[in-house]
Amino acid sequence: MLRQFSIFGCILFFAYICEHHPPFAHSEKYYDRDEFFMLTGLLFFASAFTLHKNDGKVSPTPTQKINVTANGHEGAKEIDGDKRDGIAKPTSAANDLLNRDQTEEWKGWMQFMFLLYHYFHAEEVYNSIRIMITCYVWMTGFGNFSFFYLKGDFTLVRVLQMVWRLNFLVIFLCLTQGTTYILYYICPLHTYFFFMVYVAMRIAKGVNYTKYGLRIKLMVLGLFIFCLWDWKALNLFEVLHFYLPEHPQLGATNGTLWEWYFRTSLGMNNKSSFILELPSLLIQLLF
Amino acid sequence: MIFAANYPIMSYLQRKLEAQPARQEWMAKGSTGIVLFAVFLWWVTHPFMEPKLSYNQTNAYYGFIPLVTYIYFRNLTPTLRSYSLDLLHQIGKTTLETYLMQHHIWLTSNAKSLLTLIPGWPKINFLVVSIAYFFLSRRLYRITLFLRGMLMPDDHVKCLKSLFAIFCVVGLSYAYTWTLAEFGLNFLSIIGFSALVLGLSLYKITTLKLYHMHSDMNASSLRPILGGVASLLMIGFAWRSMAVFGAGKIVPLPASCAVYANEGSWISISTCNELQKGVSYYENGIDGFATCNGKNWGWDITESSSLCRFTRKNSKVLKKQLREQRIAFVGDSITRNVYHALNRALGDTNAGQYDTNVEKHSNIKKKIGNISLEFYWAPYASDIYEVIKEQRTSKPDLIVLGGGAWDRLHQWSAPEDKQAFIDNLVNIKDELNEYKINGISSVWILPTTINDAALMSEDKKQNMTESKIHEVREISSKTLEDSPTFVLDGSKFTIGRVHESYDGVHYPNAVYDAGAQILANAMDWLVTEKPFEFKDGPHPGKMAQPLLGFMILAISSIGIFFFDSYFGLTYLASFFVRGVRPNDLYEEAFTPLHKKMKLPPIVSSQSQSKHSKEAEEFNTLLRGEDETSEDIEMTPNGHNSRGIASSKRRS
């Protein structure tokens, strides 16, 4: 554990140096359409060589491997179902509708496009990127719903583990980089949606398994979302998000060193993009 | 969520269709597919083609169209479903980490600029930085999962305990650094020392604990301690040297950059490369170039640690920086040309065009957006003095002056003329110092290079040659000393193109553009940006589209109450294949699933007998498959939640 923390610290230190004291000046983005599409094409071409038949089992995750060693030394609890090793995997898991391999693949190429878009600042593909983020968020809704439906696990542990997965890195990044949480808007976004699904499934969870009960609940959620984002007169959004500061400059307050750290990042851009992002993505969650 | 709620039905339905004869299967799949594709086509040609901002308005409402279409076609056949691309899969696993780390170790300055490890090699740099970035992101993914396993086990008490501990440790560290910063003690040495003490005590505690647990262990050796100290020293050293010699974040240029600002040269950059050719081919209908050696001004390389990153400022950036400023130019034709060039840099492309209808020696007042740009004609040093004395009361935000050529040409013959020029400069100097006291910066423009051979009159050939003007420059610099905040050296950015001066004194507009860019860069330390008044930004509700929202509600309700993830389109399939109406499949699809997952049984509202046989078949199909339904989980937390769940179920 100490070792993992040390490596974690080193990576954060590296990120800090890259951000604040890079060896050479940061360079500006330059959009080269030719290169952008060449790299995109290259990715899909290279991926074509990695075509493989889904075997239905997820390749052992790094965690599993670590766990195997950790069990011996530090008595870590298994968290990734080691017991599954050796159990014959059914074939249909590999070719089910939207199977796991497929969704990971989907996430993969969307992420690649997303990153490439950022690197080249390729504004002309903005609309496509927007739709990809939408899909990505939709997957959150899909995954969490399925989980809660199938497992019915609403325990605190589950919530904590999920929140940890989503926010562990981002919190330490905020602390070391002196940035704000809202800057990495994907994280609050996913956390927010996670809780939304959680609440929706938790309230009256008894009816989750009746034919129409669940569906009525979903419809109510839909109406709620509609009221929240589309019904201006209700002002429900303001009421429910009273804790979000109306004024964007929230961080840059005290201490010389910290103020210097806080200097950038905030601005109204981040805030407004979050607000813009929310409704567009939330509706997708419903589907 | 609707899709997820209907998921078992859709999955089952698909299998059912695939069990039909091929013709029926494809009629059914095709009918849904065609309609879906038609809607998708409409989406591509209409909402998707909107420009960025109006697209944003509707993305929420139409976004489901491509989403559902992609899912439908990606999962069309069993073969398509059973293959995936491993490379993409690998990228897909660490999306959260790659998303977060891109801000700092791939892009920088919060994703606004690029991290550069190999300057001058943009593509190689891209490669190297990307490799490090992907490697570290994957490492972080493993660390996050590992630490979660350690600190957030499936045990309430342990979870809360470690959460509390983490909060304590982070809170204490934060409080400690805050205290250090508050008392101005945040030196590297103190931080290093604290880290050392902490590290040593941590080491002591762990070894003691381990010693108790395994009493047969050897006594602690010195090696880990030395290693720890060494690595701490290394980190500290790296930090220090990077802070001193590294480049730093992108910040406005400091005033110390003034010494470098005028240094650079005109180089010819060939635009006749394949890239430019391709761009002009598609955008301008040009195939092949006749000329390609345009001259461009560039600044000399400065040391990384100087923080002087001169760069061309486009009109958008410049407009933002000069928002609501009033800039007054006072001087002769050289100053006026720089004035026009700054107007061009701000987006007024016609500024300074040759026009005999415009009075040559007159004042100009202009407003570009909310920026006021004024030019006062003041050829002689004495005129300049008069104007700036007068202007001081109206307090411009920046004043740009330049002169000396007229004095040299017309009032130089007697020794007292020269003295008068110097006296006027002294007056100007005093005045500029007054400006400085009032917090107003000033710029002095030294005359541009003279092209002796092109001078048009005998008078000029006598009194205005480069060597004579050079003397004027020296006198001005010496007399004004450091009263102007910045000196724009006209000779520096013109010397490389001296042969292009058509009358010996003036240059083509493009040359002055370089001067305006030098000035624009100097703006970083010359003007203070006016604080941006936060007028009501976008409020929640701006994006609301009640009508479209209502449409979504309607479509959703179809999806919800007709048990169809494709919003009713699947019913088309039931024209071709009997018994696949999603509505009827509810029990067939859910019963085995619930049985398998040990969920409460389906409350049967209809008779089950009708489909019981099929359900039975499906059940046997499912019996062997253990993990099917688990594999649909794909939140960023990926594997673990499934793992937790599966171990839970087994226990």
List its traits:
heterodimer, A: 287 residues, mainly alpha, 11 helices, 63% helix, globular, disordered C terminus, B: 651 residues, alpha/beta, Rossmann fold, 6-stranded mixed beta sheet, two-stranded antiparallel ribbon, 11 strands, 57% helix, extended
Please give a quick description of this structure.
With 287 residues, chain A is mainly alpha-helical.
Low-confidence stretches of chain A: 58-91, 245-287
- End-to-end gap of chain A: 40 Å
CATH superfamily of the domain at 324-526 in chain B: SGNH hydrolase
Q: In percent, how much strand structure appears in the residues of chain A?
A: under 5%
Give the CA-based shape of chain B: extended
- Tell me the radius of gyration of chain A: 22 Å
Largest interface (CB within 8 Å) is between: A-B, 177 and 174 residues
Oligomer: heterodimer
Overall average pLDDT of chain A:
65
Tell me the name of the CATH class of the domain at 324-526 in chain B: Alpha Beta
What percent of residues of chain A adopt helix (DSSP H or I)? 55-70%
Number of helices of chain B: 27
**Biggest β-sheet description of chain B:** 6 strands, mixed
What is the structural class of chain A?
A: mainly alpha
Beta-strand percent range of chain B: 5-15%
The appropriate CATH architecture of the domain at 324-526 in chain B is 3-Layer(aba) Sandwich
Major sheet of chain A:
none
